[in-house]
Amino acid sequence: MGRVSQAQAQENRRRVVDTASRLFREQGTHVSVADLMKAAGLTHGAFYKQFASKEALVDEVTALVFDEIARRYAAGLERHDGQRDAAQRALIDDYLSVEHRDNAADGCPVAALAVDVARGPEGREARRTYAEGVADFAAFLAPAEAVAGGEGVGGGEGGLARLCTMVGALVLSRATQGSPLSEEILAAAHAALTEAG
Which of 47, 72, 121, 181 has the most other CB atoms within 10 Å of its CB? Predict the structure, then answer.
């Protein structure tokens, strides 16, 4: 069999990263390399032509999914003409929806990767990237007065509290899916985040 062209190798790598992005958010980073490559439509051996290790792929995917979420909230700000409150409200509406609950593969990396990152060793690039991504997401969710006041990492308590409420509600809603409690959790978190503001 002939060698793969550089363009094809780049396309294969992109396909593996995109597939891993979805599978890691849906099933966790414990997905086997064999299952990942099968889902990507490539051979198991092709993995090691692209990545030094599975950990290297986890690091790359973690950076990718946090870049995606940063682009999403930047796009939300643009859609709402820079109106931070409106962009935050739209994000909360989308985040605490049944559609987001049911679509983990394209969903929030904060909720999807938390357990895997926590179980991984300290000093890993994925852990550093995850922490930065959480701080950035919380900063986006921070109330305007916290941003103007230059409050700490993650926009101070307001942004962190909003993020914790959203992520906790999403995780609990997914864990109770199929029970009436699942949608009640989403609705309660949504009300807590939007009725006061």
Answer: 47
Look at residue 43 and give its three-state secondary structure. coil
Helix intervals (H) in the chain: 6-27, 33-40, 47-50, 54-79, 84-95, 98-102, 109-119, 125-141, 144-148, 156-175, 180-194
Given pLDDT bands bounded at 50, 70 and 90, which one contains residue 56? very high
41 Rama sector, left if φ>0, alpha if ψ -120 to 50, beta otherwise: left
Summarize pLDDT for 5-15 with one digit per residue, the tens: 888 889 999 99
> What is the Cα–Cα distance from 66 to 128, expressed in whole angstroms?
12
**Burial environment of residue 37 by CB neighbours within 10 A (0 to 12, 13 to 18, 19 or more):** buried
Name the residue among 22, 14, 19, 51 with its Cα closest to residue 37. Answer: 19
Tokens 């922490």 locate to 131
Contact 66, 136 (CB under 8 A): yes
Distance separating alpha carbons of residues 101 and 172, to the nearest angstrom? 10
How far apart are alpha carbons 133 and 66 in whole angstroms? 6
